[in-house]
Batch of 3 targets.
Target 1
Amino acid sequence: MTRFDFHSARLAMVDGQLRTNAVTDSRLLDAFTEVPRERFVPETLRGVACIDEDLPLGGGRWLIEPRVLARLLQFAQIASTDRVLVIGDPSGYAAAIVARLAGQVIMLESDSAAAATARQNLAALGCANVQVVQGALERGHEAGAPYSAIVLAGAAVAVPEALRAQLVEDGRLVGVIRKPGTQMGEAEVMTSIDGVLSRRAVFDAGTPYIPGYQPTPHFAF
C-alpha cells in the first residue's frame, strides 16, 4: 500500500490555496506548511485534510478551510510579542498555527472532550505557549485579557460585547460575520479604538457558525 504523502499535500495547499489568494506573510506560509493539518481531523478525513473546504469534526463543529483561516490571520497582523485569544477551534489547529506567530495563545473551548483532544494535539506538537481553557465561547476569557488579537475560527452573526472589552487599545479582532439566513458572510477586521470597534470587510466566505455565535432560533405561527 502506498503511504499518503501528507507533507506534499500541505505544500500543494500552500501553493494552490494560500499563495494564490494573496497570503504573502512568510511566517504564515511556513506555519501552514509545517503544522500537520491531518492530525486535527478524524482519521477518515486525513486524506482530504488539505482540501479547500470546511471539514466536519462532529457535533456541529468544523475545521474551517485553509484559505479563510490564513487570510484572517494575515489581517490580524500577529506579532511575536502578542497575546492572542483563539475561539471556535475544537481540535486546536488554528491555535497551533497562531502559536508559531504569537508569544502567548489562549484557546477557548466549551466542550470538555474537544478541549482534551486539542490539548493532546497541541502537546504532541510541542506548542508550549498555548493554554487551552474551557468556558462559554461567547463570553471570551476575561481572566486572560487583555489580548492583542482575538481570532474567531468560524462565523458569527455578531461580535459579543464581552469580546470588545478584552482587546487592548488598537487590538485586532478577526472573523467572518454572517447574517441570519445567508450562506455567505464577510470576513472583517475589527480594531479597538477608544473602546469602540472600527470595522472593515476584507473578503467573502461561506464559513460555518461557531456554537454560541449563530442566529437565535425563532418560530413563526
Note: The chain has a mean pLDDT of 95.
Target 2
Amino acid sequence: MDAVTALPPAAVEIVALSKRYAAGAPPAVDQIDLRIASGSYCCLLGPSGCGKSTTLRMVAGHESVSGGDILLDNRNITNLPAAARGTAMMFQSFALFPHLSALDNVAFSLKMKGVSKTERHKRAGNLLERVAMGHLAERKPGELSGGQQQRVALARALITEPRVLLLDEPLSALDPFLRIQMRAELRRWQKELGLTFIHVTHSQEEAMALADTMVVMNHGLIEQVGSPHQVYNHPASEFVARFMGGHNVLDTPEGLIAVRNDHMQIAPAESTGHPGLAAHVTDVEYQGTYVLMGLRLTGAATERSGVSVLLAEKAFAAHPYAVGDGVRLSWSPADARPLGPGAVRPTGEPPAGPVSRPAPLSALAAMAA
C-alpha cells in the first residue's frame, strides 16, 4: 500500500472528447472539455443516457474514442491500452470471481503479471487490512455482504497502484442505509490515499456528499462544472436547476430564474399588503422536520406553473395550509438565480437543453496535437 500512497496523484484533462457509436448517429459524448484537478474527487452526474458512463469508459480505455484527447499529467493516453494508462476501474457489479477467496480476488492481477504467490498474497493481505477486510480474506464473494464485497473490489482496484481510480455507479447495488455508510468510507479512502477519484452517478445527493467537483452532463454535453455548493446554489441552466432538484424555475419579465424552494415565501391569499403571485395549494407532504407543499400558479397552464415550497415544521404548524387554499407566493430578489440561455452544440445543432460548455483548453489542444 505504501507504493500507492507514494505515487503523486494525477490530473486528468479531456480535450474535445467525442464518441459516436454509428456514422450519422447523435453523439453519445459531444466534444467535451474538462480538467479534473490532481488529488480531487470528481463526480460525473446526469440522467441515464447523458454520456457520463461513456466518458468514464473512454478515460479507462474500455471504450474507443471517436475524437479528441485524454491526458493524464500531460501524457496523452488516448490510444493506450487500459493496463498502460495508470487508471483502475471499480465496477458497479464489483465483478468479483465467485470461486476465488477475497485474498485471491485482490491478488489476481498480480498473478497475471507473474508475481510470486508469497509476494502477491502479502500485498493483497495488506490492502485487505487497509479496507478492514483482513479478517475475511479467505471468504468467497458469496459469503460476504454487499458492503464487504465493495471493499474487496476497492482493494483489487488499488493493487494495480493506479494514479486515478474510476468508479462506475459503485453504490447503486447497495441498500439505502449501506449506501450512506459506504459513501462516507469512499470519501475517507480518497483522502487517505490522496488519489484522483472519478465517480459516475445519477444521484444528486451522492454527488453532493462526495465531490470536490461536480460535472453535470446532459445529452452528451457538459451543462455545468463546479463545487457542489456552486452547482446547487447557482445553477447555470434550466436543466441543472431541475435536475438538481429543490428549485423552482420561473418566467419573469427579467428572464428565466431559479429560486430554491426553501427560499420561497407564502402567505394566505387574503393577506393585505402582501405582494406576490396568486397560487393555490395542490399537495401537502409532511416529511418530519419540514413540510413540502406543491402549488400551482393561478391561471397558468405551462409546465412552469407548478411550484414547490419547503416550510419548516414549526412554520407550517403556526399556519397550516390545506389542498385548495389560495396563497400569495413571493421571494427575495437576492435569492433569484438567473439561468443562462445555453450554448449551441459544437456541430451547430440546437441544444437538447440549455448548455454551458467550458472554454476551449487551447493550451491542451496544442499539446495533444
Note: Residues 35 and 91 are 23 Å apart (CA to CA).
Target 3
Amino acid sequence: MGTGRARLAASILDADLGNLAYDVRRAVRNGADRIHLDVMDGHFVPNLTFGAKTIKALRPRTEAPFDAHLMISDPGRYIEEYIDAGCDSITIHVEIEEPIEPTLRAIRARGRAAGLALRPATPLSALEPYQSLLDIVLVMTVEPGFGGQAFMREPAKKILPARQLLRHRPVDGEVHVDGGVNRETAEYVGGLGVDVLVVGSALWVKGHDQGREIRLVKALADEGYQYNLNNGVPPIPRDNWVRFTSLPKPIAKAFMAEIEAGGVPVIMLRGDGQMNPDGLRNYELLVPASAQILVEERHAGERDVRLAEAEAWREIYLREHPEGAAVVAADRRPSGGR
C-alpha cells in the first residue's frame, strides 16, 4: 500500500496477455495497489477480452485486490462466477437493461464490494435509486471498450458529487476514475477527490519506467487534492490509524460495533495501559486517521459515557470479586520495585 491518499489500480487491458501473470506481479511490485480487470462481452461494448476463468487463473499469482469492471450486458447471469474467481469488488454498468438491484445485492451478500459505472454521457442521478447498495462509483472518462483513448474532462466533474453519493460509507466508499488517466490528468482528478485512479496504457509503454509512472500518478493526484480540496495541507495517508479511546474488553466491543454501524472501520487491540480487575488490560479502539474528525464529531459524547461506564464496571467487579484488587495493585507497583 502507498503512503498517501490516492490509490492506483493497474488495468491489464494493455498488458502482455501472453505473459499476464508476470505483468500483474510486476505492476504490484512497482507500487500498484490493486488490479483492475476489464471484462468485455463484444455486445455491451464493441470489444471482447477475458472472463472469469482467466481471473481465476490469475488469483493465486498475487494477493493484491482484484477490481472487476464488467462491461457486459447481463452480469446477473455470471456474477457468481466472478465472485468464485476471487474478485474483491465487482462493478457493473448502470446502463444495462436487466434489473440492477438483485445483482448488487448478490455481490454484497458474498462479502464483496459492489459498484456501478457510468458512461461519460450518463448523469450521476442514474445511480441514486441504488445509493444504499453502493460501495464504489466508477466514473468513465472515455467511452468504454478500448484502452488508450483520450481523457474527457467534462465527465470527470462527476467525481466530486459522487463522493456525496457515497456519504453513507465515509471511509471505505470509493470513487474510481477510468479512462485516459496518466501523469497529465492525475492532478486534475485528484483535485476532484477521486479515491482510486485506474491507469492502463500509460503503465505498459515499452521502455518506460513503470514504477516511476505509478509514483508520479499517485503523487500528482495527492497534490491535486491538497491544493484544490484541502487548503494546501497534505492529505492524511489512508493507512494511518489513531487511538480513539481505551476501554475494558466488553465495553470496547460494544462501542466498536456502534462506531462501525456508521460506516467507519475500527481496529480493536489489547493495549499496554490500564489493568482491569478481571486480569485483562484495556483494549484500544483505533480508527482511520482520515476519519478522526468525523468520529470525534459523532462519538465524543458517547466516549465519555463509555469511560464512566468502565469506571462503574470496575467498582462493581471489585465488589463481586475482591481478589481483583490485587491484580490492579500489582499493575500499579513501580517497575523494578518489590
Note: The chain has two domains: 7-229, 241-332.
